[in-house]
Amino acid sequence: MRRAAALLVFACTVALVVVAGAGAKSGDNTCNGGTKIDPVLSGTYDLVSGGTVTVAVYSTDDGQAFDFDTGDLNNPIQAVFVKGGTGTLEWDPGQSSGKNLHAPLNKKTGDWYDMSYLCFVQGGGGGIG
Predict the structure, then answer these.
(1) What is the mean pLDDT of residues 120-126?
(2) Please, which residues bridge with residue 96 across strands?
(3) What is the maximum alpha-carbon separation in the chain?
(4) Distance, CA of 128 to CA of 124 (rounded, Å)
(5) So where are the chain's domains?
(6) Which terminal CB of the chain, N or C, has fewer other CB atoms within 10 Å?
(7) Phi, psi of 97 (to 5 degrees)
(8) Cβ 82 vs Cβ 115: under 8 Å
(9) Cis check: omega of the bond before 76, within 30 degrees of 0
(10) What is the DSSP string of 86-100?
């Protein structure tokens, strides 16, 4: 039952990503020139390329998740890297806000890893590498 629920959540997340025009990619890197948030806590943070981002961290049945919002449609986030476990998940929202983002899936438990850090990359700055 838990596996079926995890697969349903995964399918819904994939559908959300496709509908939102975003994509998720796996990797294992560190924040380089983007805005790094470590530890991952709810709050408002200054972005290295200007403006701010508000992050709301919460728990779900599948693990930690977060929403973000720059509060400025002219200040989109090009990529969000979420480090968790031994990997990194990249979300490419291309928007000023995003919902229900999370770290990679722990295949042993079926839940998302706890988030180690976030890296927000704006249009012209930074990234993973």
Answers:
(1) 70
(2) none
(3) 45
(4) 13
(5) 2-128
(6) N
(7) -150, 160
(8) yes
(9) no
(10) TEEEEE---BSEEEE
C-alpha neighbours within 13 Å on the C-beta side of residue 94: 9
Taking 90 as the threshold, does the pLDDT of residue 104 lie above it? yes
3-state secondary structure of 23: coil
Bridge partners, 69 (sequence order): 54, 97
Question: Rounded to an integer, what distance in angstroms lies between the CA atom of residue 57 and that of residue 65?
Answer: 6
Distance CA 17, CA 120 (A): 17
Spatial contact of 30 and 128, defined as CB atoms under 8 Å apart: yes
Cα angle vertex 34, ends 18, 113, to 5°? 60
**pTM listed for this prediction:** 0.74
The pLDDT of 19-38, averaged and rounded, is 59
**Please, are residues 90 and 29 in contact by the beta-carbon 8 Å criterion?**
no
Residue 12, both tokens:
């819904």
- Report the pLDDT value the prediction gives residue 20, as an integer from 0 to 100: 32
In this predicted structure, the answer to whether residue 84 has a pLDDT above a threshold of 80 is yes
**The amino acid at 118:** L
How far is it, in rounded angstroms, from Cα 36 to Cα 42? 13
- Asked if 120 and 101 touch (Cβ cutoff 8 Å), the reply is no
